[in-house]
Design a protein that fits this description.
mainly beta, Neuraminidase, 5-stranded antiparallel sheet, 4-stranded antiparallel sheet, 3 helices, about 50% strand, globular
Length: about 350
């Protein structure tokens, strides 16, 4: 009987520790206090603008929009890519994929410019599976080129294009269902990865990541950044000539980092989720709001960086922020499922 009591006590302690770890590591106890030194310039009526990237050279934003239902997906979700002009200040939006006929629910996006043409790639989630859709953009006209599929696209989330043929993408899970997926999402099991496509082959170049999410490449410094929201980290890698990666360090961010964008000075701008459990409940339709956060990381080198909170909101202005694309003193900040996204203007 004494042995049984000891076993029960040990099990109870382990359960308490397990639950406490989940609550602490997902930001459950964090107090979200609204903060922003600036104003909302405009609200753009576009559902689920999950990823936004800006061309500072040609003054436009590319937006990935999907009219998402609740997780898990049970119906074919409908979305598209949009172009927003930034010069006039009117922020007019042009649909780019209205003639694209196959099921299209874009997630992460990336673009690369060569001469006057942009190569654009978008992660696509449909009921029949995942793919990467490849387009070219010239004179504000988008042309579909091809769909890419591979067994390595287990749970693709975000993508960064290196040139016309090469790219990296993240898988945010290593398990698609069952106890493995549960352990990844709640216990923080590190099972996701980064895959590199060299033009011919798909190669795993980083593994053992906890929910690999946003990804971006700084070509000037030859650095690849990967968001790990479940661990509240941004992981830093150097890129080798063959596409392989050397891990440099983790940047603790104190929030569930999502997509990564750069400003003209090379600083990282990231949309984030301060409370991951709140976000999960919101994504499942069990909560009306999920808090949003934008951070800026000034990265000068190993062990030399600063993390600054730019925008924090309890979700009433915008829920579940995923991206913060800077353009001058403007921030284009998207989200998972709201029917609009915000254009913010900083005071400085």
């Amino acid at each position: 009987m004494r042995l049984l009591k000891k076993i029960i006590l040990i099990v109870l302690v382990l359960i308490i520790v397990f639950i406490a770890n989940i609550l602490i590591s997902t930001g459950f106890f964090r107090t979200v206090e609204n903060k922003f030194d600036g104003e909302i310039v405009k609200k753009i009526a576009l559902p689920g603008a999950e990823d936004i990237t800006v061309s500072a050279i040609d003054s436009f934003a590319l937006i990935s929009s999907t009219n998402r239902g609740f997780f898990p997906q049970v119906e074919e979700e409908v979305g598209g890519l949009y172009l927003m002009e930034l010069k006039s200040g009117n922020f007019n939006i042009k649909p780019l994929t209205s003639s694209f006929k196959k099921p299209f629910a874009p997630h992460g996006i990336s673009m690369f410019k060569k001469d006057s043409t942009y190569k654009i790639m978008a992660i696509n989630h449909t009921l029949s599976g995942h793919s990467i859709e490849v387009f070219s953009l010239q004179n504000k006209t988008l042309t579909f080129e091809k769909s890419l599929t591979d067994d390595s696209m287990l749970s693709p989330n975000d993508i960064v294009v290196i040139d016309e043929n090469r790219f990296y993408f993240t898988n945010d899970h290593g398990n698609t269902k069952g106890i493995g997926r549960f352990m990844e999402e709640y216990a923080g099991l590190s099972a996701s990865n980064v895959v590199y496509f060299d033009g011919e082959n798909y190669i795993e170049v980083a593994s053992g990541i906890t929910y690999a999410n946003g990804i971006n490449f700084d070509s000037k410094r030859n650095l690849l950044f990967v968001a790990s929201p479940r661990k509240f980290l941004v992981k830093v890698y150097s890129k080798n000539t063959d596409g392989s990666l050397d891990f440099i360090e983790d940047i603790p961010c104190g929030t569930g980092v999502d997509n990564i964008e750069f400003d003209t000075e090379g600083n990282l701008w990231i949309g984030a989720h301060p409370n991951l459990l709140k976000f999960t409940a919101y994504a499942k339709g069990k909560e009306a709001f999920s808090p949003s956060e934008i951070i800026k990381i000034e990265y000068k080198g190993k062990n030399d960086y600063t993390v600054e909170k730019i925008y924090v909101n309890d979700g009433t202005e915008m829920s579940a922020s995923t991206v913060a694309a800077p353009f001058g003193n403007l921030i284009f900040t998207g989200n998972v499922m709201d029917d609009k996204f915000l254009i913010l203007k900083r005071s400085d």
